[in-house]
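Researcher: I'm preparing a figure for a lab meeting and need a structural model of a single chain. I don't have an experimental structure, so a prediction will have to do for now. The sequence is pasted below. Please return the structure as tokens so I can convert it later.
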Amino acid sequence: MSLPEHIAAGETGYDRVLRFSIPDRNARGRVVRLGPVLDTILTAHDYPPPIRRLLAEALVLAALLGTLLKDEESQLTMQAQTEAGVVDLLVCDYRNGELRGYVRHDPERLAMLGRDPSLYALFGKGYLAVTFDLATTGQRYQGIVPLEGASLGEACESYFAQSEQVPTLIRVGIGDGSAGCIGAGILVQHLAEGEEGRERLHVKPDHPEWEHVAVLAGSTRPEELVDPDLSLEALVWRLFHDESEVRVETGRVLQRGCRCSIAHYQSVLARFPEAERIDMRNDAGLIEVDCAFCSKLFQIEI
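Model: Understood. Here is the structure written out token by token.
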């Protein structure tokens, strides 16, 4: 079956998100594909391949979860930590269409794991914290789940199941293109019927509408997600073209969004006592600050 002309003509570019909903199935979703933005973030540090892939997956997930936020200035933060893992810190956040991320790891221990270490090999007994900071109300919601399963995507599915009671399916693909690393993903969720005064989905004995959507979305292959010749619109159509109605809305363009600046670091350093700031200064009387996200080195005078 050929694609409808208006869908086949959809944008095939990178660093964009597509929102969609399936009203008859009480489902909503997001599809994202990252290219130059992802490569810019990854090349800020000389990450070895397993860490590049881990951070790429985390950035795709941050984009998928972050675009669920309604208010532009709201922020989504994902942080994975462990006490004695090869990776002891992974942090990504999304705000207003901007992404950033960083991984801290032990290079010597990583080299002992081989080319394709498992999530458990990288983190050991770790946990994932997902935090939503809402700009309009000033409220903060956080859920913490164990880093279990085969991927960060599975940990995020567990977050929504445990903290939000919202059935969620996530698929992520990571690949290489002519312009560098490509990362893409799809997220689908069943809308919470309890918000409309009906019985919430998780207390029902069965829920065929969600099972139908999950089966279709779960068939998405990683190579489809990262295929630069397959538009996001065409991907959604390929999965759900038999539905009576699928509503699609083009989301914002995504970009790298490190928020480091001299003014920011001056305001942070100003909170330290003067005696401590004196100890921080180098021979030139400046305080050197290295941004973990973008690797820029700042010389701060304060």
